Amino acid sequence: MSESSDMEGSHDHYKMRVNNYAQGAHLSFRIDSNPSGPNNAVVWLSVVYINDEEYGRGEGPNKRVAEENAANAAWRLIKSLGSVSR
């Protein structure tokens, strides 16, 4: 499956993967999301934090997509650190 920045059609559920990883490792997990821009062209920015450390950022046309994009970035970082086997 493609790792494009628009996760709208994705079935990978990176947010769930990162949450499950954090829970399994007894770490805190949160996503902060904020909109910006004019009402007719809002862009959401989401940031994933694990134990209050930033792990990934993502943008999207809505909160769900931005969160999934941020979680995708976090998941890639977690994998690159060797913290998970998948």
TrEMBL record:
Named from the GO MF annotations, one term is:
RNA binding
Q: Could you tell me which PROSITE patterns the record lists for this protein?
A: DS_RBD
Task: Say yes or no: keyword ATP-binding present.
Answer: no
DRBM domain residues are 13-80
What name does UniProt use for this protein?
Answer: Ribonuclease III
Extract the coiled-coil ranges from the record.
none
The entry's keywords: RNA-binding
The record's listing under InterPro entries reads: dsRBD_dom (IPR014720)
